[in-house]
Structures are given as C-alpha cells and as structure tokens.
Amino acid sequence: LAVKPPSHPTYDLKSVIKLALAEDAGDRGDVTCKATIPAEVEVSAYFLAKEDGILAGTALAEMIFNEVDPSLKVEWLRKDGDPISKGLEFGKVHGTAHSIVVAERVVLNFMQRMSGIATLTKAMATAAYPACILETRKTAPGLRLLDKWAVLIGGGRNHRMGLFDMVMIKDNHISIAGGISNALKLVDTYLQQNNLQIGVEVETRMLEEVKEVLEYASSFETRLSRIMLDNMVVPLPNGDVDISMLEKAVQLIDRKFETEASGNVTLESVNKIGQSGVTFISSGSLTHSVKALDISLKIDTKLALEVGRRTKRA
Fold first, then answer.
1. pLDDT tens for residues 44-65?
2. Other Cβ atoms within 10 Å of 308 Cβ, number
C-alpha cells in the first residue's frame, strides 16, 4: 500500500465493505443487471477523473471488487496520494460485467469521499507548514478509519482514533472536575493506578488557563504531553484572523509541551495560524463537511468524455 490505514483494535474493515454492499443489494440484488446483462459477458471499465484532486481509496476499491468477485482484475495508472486531473483515465477493472456494475457505486462512494478528504487535506497541510495538520473525531459514523486513512493519504496526521487511545481533557471534563488543575491531577492518578502509557492533552481557552496548566506542571509530576489552544484564533470583519492570543500562548508554553491550535481553521486562515509556532493545527472541516471528488467508472469512455466536455466536467 502507498499509505497504510491507521490501526484500530476493534474496527473490521471487511465488515464495513459487506455492510455497504448489502445496503445496495437489499434482499433481491441488482434487478437491473439481472434483467439486462447476461451473466457470462465480460467488459473493461475505466476510472475517469472529472475534476482535479488527490486520489485516495484505490486499495479499498480493490478490497470491494474482491469481495464482489475475486476474479475481477484491477489495474491502476495512479496510486493513492497522487494528483489526478480532470479528464484523466487513471485505472481500469476487467471481468464479469455484472460484478463490475454491482460494485461500481459502492467503490465510487468510498473513493469519492476519501479523495475529497485527501484533496482538502493536501491543500491544508501545504498551507499549514511548518505546523502539522490534524483531523478530529468529526467523522462520518462508521467510516472513521476510512476518513482518517484519507487524511494520511493527503499528507496530514491523525489525531486520536477515539476515546480509548488518548486522554483528552476538554471543557466539559474540566467543568465537572472543578477546574483544570483538578482534572489534570485526576488523570495523572488514574494513569498511574492503571499503569497506562498514553498521551494526555488538555484544552485551554484563555491565557489564564494556559498559565494554570503550566503552574500545575511545574509543581507536580504529570503525563501531560500536549496543550490545545482552543478558539484563540479570532475572526476579523475583513475576513482576516487575529492570532495574537495564540502567539502569546505559544510563547508562554515555550516548547515545554506540544501545542495544538483549534477553532476558526480554514483554508484561508491556516497559513497564518501555521506561522504562530504551534506544533499542530486541527480542523474538523477535513472530514465533517468534505466535498466529494468527482470520479466515474465507465465502460464507454469515449461517450463519457464527450458528455463530460459538454457539461464542463472533463
């Protein structure tokens, strides 16, 4: 694989594929294929890009084709993470026509979503440098591993996979615990008692909270590894952002901990945020409102390209 999927202790990728295929097939299968396509007919179908972007999901597509029909043969002219341009033929699948058509929509649904995420991630990661871009847990339910895989393909890095692999002390935890210092103390005690070696991040929203975290860390042994600087990027009426609070927080922390900027992160603002000195920038927009990349799978590519040119999509 060009980029391996992130690991997860309970996520079964094959079951997700089976669920997607079952959702399409229902209790009768593809009645249109059964009515129109003889079972023995074989064809080649070609992947076409209808817009520019970053390709993602080819490895998953192969898994889906194999689940539908192991005899299908897939070839790629581009790999995950490669740029593709409008009108480009970047892969093909050959075999039983019925199997290809049955797999088509499920393959495209996953590839389009993953390529859309990878495309936005690539743009954000490039603009954010030298900071690293992260996604969040704002993923499509049931598709988290795939969404996070697409972020890796696009050149981003993964935040925590779920609630189990990192302690992340957020505003509600702090309110319930009675303050940041209390929350940190409770976490440190819990990790020590349970002999857990996992990262700890705490959310701060004001400079006073940053100072309290640093005061706690200077007074107690702590597992804290990262400080989130939440909504310290302030939008301005002219469309720009004010990052002065963020910069002050980064200066206060002075590399004692990793830092993560969150809130008001857009493709337009991320470059300026990246110049603040933060280690990471997290953005839910990478996955929660992604625009799918337009990709098709066509047997008659000549007609598909003709129609695409007519509609300005090829």
1. 999 999 999 999 999 999 999 9
2. 20
